[in-house]
Automatic annotation (TrEMBL):
GO terms for cellular component: cytosol. GO terms for molecular function: DNA binding; DNA-binding transcription factor activity. It comes from [Actinomadura] parvosata subsp. kistnae. Belongs to the LysR transcriptional regulatory family. It holds the Pfam family LysR_substrate. This is LysR family transcriptional regulator. It comes from the Bacteria.
Length: 299
């Protein structure tokens, strides 16, 4: 039995699929399948039910998964102790992010950490806020950059790094194009363009409309904030987006503020608290906090 087999087993269990596990491990999918089959032969029992569209753990797989995780954690702990004695920071850190606004120099932050700690492997993954939060909670992701809206799960710490006013953007021929600051109620019944559910911007929009007594009619969704403005410039509806994401020229788009709404979009760094991070991950979090702006208060 090899540690690589245990690592592959845990990855397939957490990703619920061989292909996603291979992508996470940066290896070929047939190699993952071969190692899992070898592990199953050594144990004499199938670890996964492969009969459905989603790979699921068998009863044996559920029973041995905690032991596989414990074995990997023990080996990681041994390496960290040895590295602390040698004074060399090693390991692997994983950062998750939704689309990154131009006001944050995320590539520069990653490059700076690599320069200071070249022996630490850095991985960057992009996903939706729900999967990122789940990754932080379960330990698959050390630090995530995502929109803030709904309350975070317990045990997580957060630092606000983006805090922007949200605005409405419309085509020059839209009925609201000539207005000054608009009331939230003027969005009622209109086709809106927003980020997907679960994002901080979408949560802020839904809460703002709920306070005004109606549910927003979101006709178009896009995962990139700047795409929202592009859709609005085509006359497809009212885009609600951060002010910095308005990339279209004034001839294609009219930008409107909200009257007295206090509608803002926030993004934050999120990580596990309580000393649960590895030395490499702790150093990475501290580096990110130094490099990226602090628009607190932390929440």
């Amino acid at each position: 039995m090899e540690l690589r087999q245990l690592e592959y087993f845990v990855a397939v269990a957490e990703e619920a699929g061989f292909t996603r596990a291979a992508e996470r491990l940066h290896v070929a999918q047939p190699g993952v399948s071969a190692q899992i089959r070898q592990l199953e032969r050594e144990l004499g029992e199938p670890l996964f039910d492969r009969s459905g569209r989603v790979v699921r753990l068998t009863a044996v797989g559920e029973a041995v998964l905690p032991y596989a995780r414990a074995a990997l954690a023990a080996v990681s702990g041994m390496r960290m102790v040895a590295d602390e004695f040698s004074g060399l920071l090693r390991g692997r850190v994983v950062m998750g992010a939704v689309s990154t606004p131009s006001v944050l120099d995320l590539p520069g932050m990653l490059a700076g950490f690599h320069e200071r700690h070249p022996a630490v492997e850095i991985s960057l993954v992009e996903s939706d806020p729900g999967r990122l939060l789940d990754g932080v909670v379960t330990g698959r992701i050390d630090l995530a950059l995502l929109g803030l809206g709904a309350p975070l799960p317990p045990g997580l710490e957060v630092r606000v790094v983006v805090d922007q006013e949200l605005v409405a953007a419309v085509h020059p021929g839209h009925e609201l194009a000539g207005a000054g600051p608009i009331e939230v109620t003027e969005l009622k019944g209109l086709p809106l363009i927003s980020l997907p559910p679960g994002t901080g911007l979408r949560t802020a929009l839904e809460e703002m409309c709920a306070r005004a007594g109606f549910a927003p009619h979101v006709a178009f969704e896009a995962s990139e904030p700047y795409v929202l403005g592009q859709l609005a410039a085509r006359g497809l509806g009212v885009a609600v987006l951060p002010e910095s994401a308005v990339a279209a020229p004034a001839s294609e788009l009219r930008v409107l503020t909200f009257s007295g709404s206090g509608l803002r979009g926030r993004m934050g760094l999120v990580w596990r608290g309580g000393g649960e991070l590895s030395p490499a991950a702790r150093a990475f979090v501290e580096h990110a906090r130094r490099h990226l702006p602090d628009l607190g208060p932390d929440c």
